[in-house]
Structures are given as C-alpha cells and as structure tokens.
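Support request, priority: normal
Reporter: lab tech (M.K.)
Component: structure prediction queue

Hi team, I submitted a job for Biotin carboxyl carrier protein of acetyl-CoA carboxylase from Streptomyces silvae yesterday, and the status page still shows it as pending. I've pasted the exact input below so you can check whether something in the sequence is tripping the parser. The sequence length should be 166 residues. Please let me know if I need to resubmit or if it's stuck on your end.
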Amino acid sequence: MTTETTTAADTMTVEELRTQTRLLAGELPGTLRRITLKAGGISVDVEWETAPATAPAPTPAAAPAGAQPAPAPPAAAPADPDRPAGLVQVTAPLVGTFYQASSPGGEPFVQVGDIVEPGHQLAIIEAMKLLNSITADVRGRVHAVHPQDGEVVEYAQPLFDLVPVD
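Reply from support: The job had stalled in the queue. We restarted it manually and it finished. Here are the results:
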C-alpha cells in the first residue's frame, strides 16, 4: 500500500497561483518588471526595479485588492556639478560578487580614464558559481568605478560611470 502526501503547492491550481502572484506583486518595493509562472511543480520568478518609478501607476483593475497606492517619488536631487553631461551608468544586472579582473591579483579589465568600445568587458559578476560578463553599451571614457573588487553588489547597483566619446 502506497501513501501519498500532498501539499498545498501540489494541489494549487493555475488560477490560485495567479491570484497569489498578483498579491505578491502588490507587495513589491518597486515597479514590477517580469513575472514567470510555472504550474507543474509550482514556480514563480519575480523581477522588479528597486529605484523609484516614473511610469504611471497600474490601473485599478490590475492592482490586487487591498493594495495601497505607490508613494510619490522623491523630489529630484540638485544636479552634481562634478558629474559630466551625458554620463552613462552601467548597473549590475544581477546580485553577485563584483570582480575587476579575470583572476585574483590580475590586471583590471578597465581603469578610470580608459576608453572602451561597445561590447568591451568591464568586469565580472559571479553568481551561483557562474561568471557573468559586464560589458559596455557605448563608446566612452571610464569616469568612475563604484564597487571595490570582491564586493557583493545588488541588482541595479551602479558599477561604472562612462562618459560617451566620439
């Protein structure tokens, strides 16, 4: 005789998963970017922006019941006189450990003042034993490197400031 134990996750329907996901989305600390649902084995993958959003708030039909309206974004900070015009900020696409070189003690991929081309490797972020290459999207001069080598970085954290050049 076989005894099977079922959990709430095993018996959850797609509609129940959808409802629970909408409730979760209403509790996120930023703007929702992506939700992936999987019914077999129940899996939810949620991605959101941590910076204040400038996009309009969701329509009432899309907001879960009982959700509070998003707070107003903070007032814009005064312009930094040391910040070059047109500065492009490269941010972390995931959470992980930031490395400036391909090996400990190795030569950094880039240093402040270097000119980089689109696709030029700037750094590596290690996440779950996978090495993720961080590359430049524009031709520019490296103006600043924000994290220290070996520092854990968060999603959307500034990594590099690039000043576009012709």
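The beta strands are 32-38, 43-48, 88-91, 96-99, 115-116, 121-127, 130-135, 140-145, 152-153, 158-164. The chain is about 10% helix and 30% strand. Let us know if anything else looks off. Ticket resolved.
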